[in-house]
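Loading example: each entry is read as two labelled lines plus one structure line.
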Amino acid sequence: MKNNAVKLHAALLLAGMLDSAAAQEPSRESAQDAVVVTATRTERSIAGVPASVTVVTQEQIRNTPGESVDDVLRTVAGLEMPIASSYQLHPTSNFPSMLGTKNGLTSHVLVMVDGVPINDAYEGFVQWNRVPKENIERIEVVRGGGASLWGTYALGGVINIITRTPKREKYSADIGYGSLGTFHEDIYGTPLFSDALKVSLAYNRFKTDGFDQVVPGSATPGFYPRPASTYTKTSFDSDNLQGVVNFKADPALYGLARINYHENTQPEFVLKPMSTGHKITSLDMQVTKLVDDTTRLTATAFGNHGVFFTNNSSFNDNFAAPTGCGGTCLAPSDQGESFLSNNHRATADDVGLSLIWAKSALSQYIPSLSAGVDFRQIAAREHVDSFVPQAFGVPVYLPDPANTGDFQGKQRFLGVFSQMSVFPVRGLEIAPSVRFQQWHNYDGFLLQAINPADKGPQGPKTVDDFSWRVSARGEITPDVAARAAVYKSFNAPTLDNLYRTFSANGFTVFSNPNLNPETLHGGEVGLDFHTEHSKSELTLFQNTTHDYIAFASDASGNFVNQNLGESKAYGVMANASVNLGPTLVVRAGYTYTRARIVSSDLHQDWLDEQLAFIPKNKADASITYREDKLNAALLVRYASRSYGVNGLQFNAIGTTPLTQSSFAQDPHTIVDAKLGYALSRKSEAYVSLVNLFDRKYVANNDGFAPPLYGTPRTVFFGVKLQTE
Amino acid sequence: MRRYGILSAGFLALALATGCAREKPRYNGIDVTGAAIGPDFRLLDPEGKWRSLSEFRGQYVMLFFGFTQCPDVCPTSLARAAVVRNKLDAEGIRVQVVFVTVDPERDTPQLLREYTKAFDPSFLGLRGDPTLTRETAAAFRIAYEKVPTGKSYTMNHTALTYIFDKQGRPRLAMGHNQTPEQYADDIRTLDRSGS
């Protein structure tokens, strides 16, 4: 990968990019006039779209000081992201959700790049650094059940990251360095550019040495606090190499082909023996044919090959009990050491296809109708080596054959969907969409199970689902519209949920091959305010998730993934964006979310608690100023107290009952800032400040690790150069 | 005629670039052929018998230095070595795994036997006294040091695995993050080349 990077550097240098030094490309795009493609799976102006949609513009992305896309999305109203940055968390914690649907075991948001899913095929999490900020044109966030158009993962909504398409020949480099050993470089170039063919190459590198995340004196459930020297900083290093070919055979036939290679590592994660790494190679292609002035066919194909490893650790004192050490217990004097308890190496391959037919201007009353079919096939295999401490006078770490071996599974999704837009009377749009999908799960194999008889090959399972959504939007005045939607949405358990048992820090979470899909019934009502200089919305939402999936202890105290019961969420969400003249933009957002389990045969202790990871109150505000050479942004983000677990989720460990309050994540108000100055028409220098006032707050407390702080104050300097 | 000339030149260039100019094999590990590693050791097995690398001629040797109380690198290296050995054994490629302790003070012969046997009964654990261990490690370019941990100590050590060919020559240094498939592929490549 580093060799590839060197080659790309050389190519770009040869192309004379760095000689021609570059300037900040003027961009006065705004959220008011954006075109969105995600809400209806066809192009629509955001001004009239019958859904709760936020478009994060390139300018906003550029003005957000954080280094990763998730840092940008964290402040979007209604969206539930982990508080800590993705590269400070274990990848398997990076699950976005929306509107109170978080479950901590998988994503409840479908995340795509240009309409191609990037949720990990196997586990559902998102490697946000696969999509460097520099490559993004805009991000569309569509709230509320989206399975009727997009299928699984879109239970709570959809995020579609639209990458930039070359508009002219261009070379650019953005290189910066900052505190915590943070470094990034983004190199971009268009070695071939014509009307018919545009080829762009991008290389992105990001690394950070991390910081002391563990709250001193804290411990994971069931263990005593360790000295600070036990823990390590979580460093992160990622590379992304991408080549894109945009082609236009004729005005009626165009598309793109893209190849992307991403790799990242966390050489040490909180505790020394813990580490992670992921390599993903992906290829996708999209072709659009304009059959006539009103009819369009779009075909998309994609494939991903991912290799993911995780090394998990534990402390050897957890094995001191006679049942936990195979009868050869460690002496107390030998306890206290962390060791690598298991390492996993997973390979996941997925391929997908879709074909969409869209017709516009059918009649005065039916301006658009679309229909499509899509297919996705996922296959995952994983090998795990497990180790246990044994006493031979001294502690040694030997293989654990019972928990060593391979497991696997496959899934297939087939969907047929349709959407239409109807204007029964002037100013009122009704947009129904329906989708039939079949989820087929097969070739499953369990390596670990609570009951040993359950190990081995698993039977196939097929579930048919019918998801739907009806959205409506009516103009009250030219500037004000009322909006409403009701929907039924769907989310299938991942292969990870079904087959991947894992152990970390002394306890095991068992997979469950009998999990049923989650379904959601919900709705929202809202008002859109839209003027030449502003866009704002107010939305009330309510939803119920059936067969909510979470890990929880069973009757015997084992942790196992379960369909726990029914969760309900309701809340209010508001956001506004106002241009105060040509140089000043003010944005603000607020979300109140009450989300809880309302019925569960298994865990009465979870009832009525706020669901983990969802703060009841979340708010943000920003002001950006831009004139000729100066670009400045000040951002404030607030989240109220939240929790990393539900009920007595960890009660089976240790002797002291650990309630939800033991896993608090702190309320916090953080100020970030960014300042850029154009040195010339081709160059800009900038400084980013994250957590300006250096607030200390617990940003993650999920029980898998001790409580972890959020990013301390960091300062980052960078220079951007580009051709005109 | 000129076209044939160009074609002939093209074929010649292609032949030079591929077949005639024999391509160097590609490995996942670092090619250490010819490097001053070893070339041999003389260490004691758990039964008290002196053993050396040269006695394994005719099979590949995976050589790893570690210690039995190692909490992460050694167990995973030996578990991986077991997978590699089993894969290749099924293909008729014989591999001997040798584990040399860098902590002879604590790694008694009995402990060494139990430890290696737990991963694979065919694995061989070797030890020397502190001086012989130091000399052997230096000859094989292995660094190690004792690191106090308060009540006890741990060992920092090089986490490479050497692969020696059937003639006992050092050929590859494999990294700790490489997969069993990558290890096995490299040994297969060596085997195909007749090494």
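The helical segments of chain A are 2-14, 58-63, 69-73, 147-150, 495-499.
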